[in-house]
Amino acid sequence: MDTIFTTAKSWLTDFFDTQTKKEIETLIQQNNTEELKDRFYKNMEFGTGGMRGIMGVGTNRINKYTLGKSTQGLSDYLNKVHTGKNIKVVIAYDCRHNSDTLARTVAEVFSANGIKVYLFSELRTTPELSFAVRYLDCHAGIVLTASHNPPEYNGYKVYWSDGGQIVPPQDGAIIAAIDRLSYEDIKFGADESLIELIDRQVDEAFINASVKNGNFHAEGKDNFKIVFTSLHGTSITAIPEVLERAGYHNVTIIEEQAKPNGDFPTVKSPNPEEPEALSMAIKKAEEIGADMVVGTDPDSDRLGIAVRNLEGEMQIVNGNQAMILMTKFLLEKQKEKGFKGNEFVATTIVSTPMMEVMAKAYGVEFKTALTGFKWIGKMIKDFPDSQFLGGGEESFGYMVGDFVRDKDAVTATLLACEIAADAKAKGSSFYKDLIDSYVDYGYYKEYLVSLTKKGISGAEEIKQMLVDFKENPVVSVAGSKVKWIEDYNTSIAKNVITGEEKNIDIPKSNVLIYETEDGTRIAARPSGTEPKVKFYISTNAKLDKAENFKRVGAELDAKIKRILSELKLEM
């Protein structure tokens, strides 16, 4: 505890502002050891893509000093690798508290280091930031956001010149540059001549590109009703306009959730993965007889979708289901134009295996990556002669083409509407098309268990849970023997029945996956952005005809319940 008090007192020098020092002095005077410990027991980590955490004073908080230090390190790195060049960066921010002022601070630090800054004049979506990096020919980009985290969080994501999040080797080199610094090394003295506000020109280019990539001129748009909610976030700046320009005029916006607000007052969590987040929009859809509900998270990179099921009721489709239909639609459209042989689709190691089955059926290359769209973006950069059609992950993110290099709820929303409107015009529906896909490729059903473990003890508990999961191997799952154990920490996949071993040719990560003889998969990993440990369960069965959808679905539900019981996880 003495070390923590010493670290806290180091923030009482004249370098730090009066309000910061006053807050720390109060905590010290109150002898609030637990609060001081949580704020100062470690430095806010700049991970492989940036930072995310609770806002406040301290080394383990998001504030002008922790972000300033990261920006100073990034500036040092940019000036080192681009010596003599006119370096440019672009900065965007979301609706969260302090996002605008923190973005301004970041811009000032860049400018103090001689770097030209394009700063959005108001909040904008993360996909627009990714697009703007290449549109403005920048060397890097920053977005101030904590995505779908609770209101007390904020964050800082770093993008490279290709529009994708930073990946090796840049991430490690930037982290090293940051770690070499003390807070007193931060240059806060802005050069205002290097800061330029941007807005409508980039907006127009992004919206036009979104319509171009997501509009397939579906039939039936005049007869298709959409309810849209931005969940108090940034998508209100883009999605209504994109839908209008693509020909969707029957769009009802949930006005109570349309105004950006970092408190997210109408939802428990601004996360479209949570059913409650879409409840207000679904209620409105039932009232007006809408065909589809779409809701996005605060920075507009994830989308939640609800459509009418076989009984005509609004039902949420999960990220895996939406990804399957979006990818199938893109594959069909490419098939109509003719495959060139260099196309590929992609997903992550914890998403549905159905993606690979479907890609093989179309004869298209399938690539898989670690969790996070930065790795899908890296694929596009690593294979410049290949054409990326689309790809997604189970956590409600999707990317259409490569004009944006991160998950993009703006274009994905338009694509989802295209699929549903086209299906309705042809006498089917989004939901019926999903069932038909299960008949064609197998009925895959997934389930996610996410356990929150906060604080220092929580971090240790998460670490131990994963150690236990590895050191006490699962032998069988719901009556099916475990065949493969994939350990992404060691990059080795082992067939425990034959003893065969294969190298896993993707970067190391703290992920362990069990796969059984019947294709059931269980993956465990810590969240990279929240104090959570996640268990992903995937089951599958043959669906011979659509009429048996409910019966087979019930059988898979029972199997998932059995798996959860065996693993001592709650359902």
TrEMBL record:
A Gene Ontology biological process term: carbohydrate metabolic process
Keywords in alphabetical order: Isomerase, Magnesium, Metal-binding, Phosphoprotein
Domain Alpha-D-phosphohexomutase alpha/beta/alpha: 44-181, 205-306, 318-438
GO molecular function: magnesium ion binding; phosphopentomutase activity
Cofactor requirements of the protein: Mg(2+)
Entry-linked SUPFAM superfamilies: Phosphoglucomutase, C-terminal domain, Phosphoglucomutase, first 3 domains
Family per record: Belongs to the phosphohexose mutase family.
Name of the featured protein: Phospho-sugar mutase
Organism, scientific name: Cerina litoralis
